[in-house]
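Q: Convert this sequence to structure tokens.
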Amino acid sequence: MEKKKLLGMMTDELKAVGAEVGLPGYAAKQMAGWLYGKRVRRIDEMTNLSLKARTALAERYEIGCREPSDVQKSVDGTAKYLFPTESGGQVECVFIPDGDRATLCVSCQVGCRMGCRFCMTGRQGFGGNLSATDILNQVYSVPGSEQLTNIVFMGQGEPMDNLDAVLRATELLTAPDGWAWSPKRITVSTVGVRKGVERFLRESDCHLAVSLHNPFPEERLGMMPAEKAFGLQELLALLREQDWSHQRRLSFEYIVFGGLNDSERHARELVRLLSPLECRVNLIRFHKIPDSPYMGAPDEKMVWLRDYLTHHGVTCTIRASRGQDIYAACGLLHAAPSPLPL
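A:
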């Protein structure tokens, strides 16, 4: 019989697990402390539980953590890790150290079904959803996890297309009996899956990042097939209805392609669309992928676009490119998919 996984369980679920082996209710917080505080890898390490209880637990349950099966390290200090998943697939996550900050870019799906034409993950196709255990294991098991200051759901997959697992993972990352992180340390990205965004805004206080890449819907459709089902105009209308207080940040990711979305016409439309919102724009260098018709914009054009947007009231920064030499930069994650149940 396959053992159930403790990693990814809420305290009330751990309470039910403990009751199966005769543990009192307060033992749930003890187990949560071992899981999310001390990050134990085996049930027998939960030493404030009786040996009898640990033995009974180990017969039916396991922690559910998995070590990375491969690692690649960049000249800039970035590290990319390959993790096996519960269902037999594999995903990549990226550890990005930067002075006193350390960010982990996690994946939520094997591949992706959004099909963005400039993205290696999109080319990979869709191999299945990750469980909350799979998502949290990237945080749990990545070397140097104790140094992490931020987590971004910007790896493989569309978070709003696997929202149950993503919300469970972010809840445990922020719960007092979980990792107890501030939601301000977590950013979840999306191409704009409206129903998912609506639910995310209701049920989570984490930051939201929207993959924009072109302000004109018809041009965006040529780059991002998801525009047909999840239109930019409809998404922006939803976002304008929200109260973007200091408790939650809204950002737009904008990969800059030479001659495609970097003109003054595009800049003017970005200002028109985004100036009513309390938001920031992150400009991202395009990282060339094999057989792609797209080209990156020169640095001087990116600086011009940043300065134009900032001058016209839209806060804008150029994101530093990290890990390109190991295919860890934005749009380059591409672990081979395995058939997984949906």
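Residues 77 and 99 are 11 Å apart (CA to CA).
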